[in-house]
Amino acid sequence: MAARLLRSMAPHTSMALLQCIHSHKSARPLLALIPPTTLGTCRRKKTWPKTFPEEELRKRLTPMQYHVTQEKGTESAFTGKYTDNKEEGTYQCVICGAPLFTSDKKFDSGSGWPSFFDLINKDSITLTDDFSYGMHRVETTCSQCGAHLGHFFDDGPRPTKKRYCINSASLNFRAKNSPSEEVEASGGAGQSAPSSKNEEL
Ligand SMILES: [Zn+2]
């Protein structure tokens, strides 16, 4: 009975296969039309020296901090706690504690987000093309942990003419005279082996 059923299905199957091959062929030129930049957007696959379990971050961060740093969100303008902060000190990545900016490089851009015209260390931030929302911007990401920070523009003040437009939610401010400068101690074993915990999804 099963054999009879199979035989009766056979012509059908081969037709379907033929159709499949055919449509495959016709789909090929379409694929070629897709610009390589679209196909190559695999920045998410990049592994960072420091990784943090999602569970830990959800516990430790506010929903806004999580959304901005892990889901490339943006806090509303003029709502972040550091936009008007004029205290002397250092701004660190809220996720991994890497020092990113100092208060003497902060300026009032009028944008509603903390803005800086220079970094502490040029390698501390990774710049990536961002084509979301139908525009081309340059995304800024923490080079240590991959946290989304904000965007980079080249319309800043002298001498650098750069503007790092950063979400307060991505930052942790440490005042100059704050006693606990030791961030590394609490961070733990993040620095030693880059390939120790490769949690690629
Ligand atoms: Zn970081």
Automatic annotation (TrEMBL):
E.C. designation(s): 1.8.4.12
TM ranges: none
Record InterPro entries: Met_Sox_Rdtase_MsrB, Met_Sox_Rdtase_MsrB_dom, Mss4-like_sf
Record's keyword terms, sorted: Metal-binding, Oxidoreductase, Zinc
Domain of life: Eukaryota
Domain MsrB: 54-176
Skewed-composition ranges (Low complexity): 191-201
Name listed for the protein in its UniProt record: Peptide-methionine (R)-S-oxide reductase
Organism: Sinocyclocheilus anshuiensis
Gene it is expressed from: msrb3
